[in-house]
Prior knowledge:
Blueprint lengths: L1 H11 L10 E9 L2 H10 L17 H9 L1 E5 L12 E6 L5 H5 E9 L4 E15 L4 E5 L11 E12 L4 E10 L5 E9 L5 E13 L15
Parallel strand pairs: 2-10
Antiparallel strand pairs: 1-3, 1-5, 2-7, 4-8, 5-6, 5-7, 8-9, 9-10
Amino acid sequence: MLEAFIVARDRFLKKGGLMMPSRGQIFCQPITDGALWQEQEAKASFWRTTDFHGVDLSSLHDKALDEYFSQAVVGYYSPEISVSDEVATFSFDFGTCLVQDLRTFTIPFSFSITKTAILHGFGCWFDAFFDGTTERVVLSTSPKAPGTHWYQSRLLLRRPIAVNPGQTISGSLAFAVNDRLSYDVAVQVNLDGTSVASSQTVRLDDQMYHYLSPGQPQVPHASA
């Protein structure tokens, strides 16, 4: 969608014209969400079956786990599941960025942990900025903002990490365009000062919709 937006700018925008939205910003933060993680893990339990009409399916259990944990989970989540007060960001200026800038990009991060928890993955959302000549309007899909039909996304780690207050984690989310008109996201996270690490590839075209979460509105509204 953004590629078409940039191509249209290059073809049709007159000098001095405005892009709406003018800028976009992606956010991510580390989260703990044991219920969601267990839900995804439980989906693979069928593939532990050793006698399904005479067929042993257990050799496929690991592949099933890989499949479920590679899904982006789309839905509201509560800000309370974050395990850090910090967020990592990446910005696009739609007035100047090029199509190739959208094809691969990386969001590096470093977070200070604020609570004892299991790090199950990362929560992500975006803000869109409409910069007019005299006024600016911001459309936010943050978990702290009113609900929109974009919700938020959670990227889960198949192998979560135990964390404690005062520790730091670092790593990156590397986005690369795939042939399904979407992105593959390579998630890499390290518990600083230790050998503990986890990685996961998430396919944004393969989404699991998890709309109804406690404490969030059940009927979303479009903000734009």
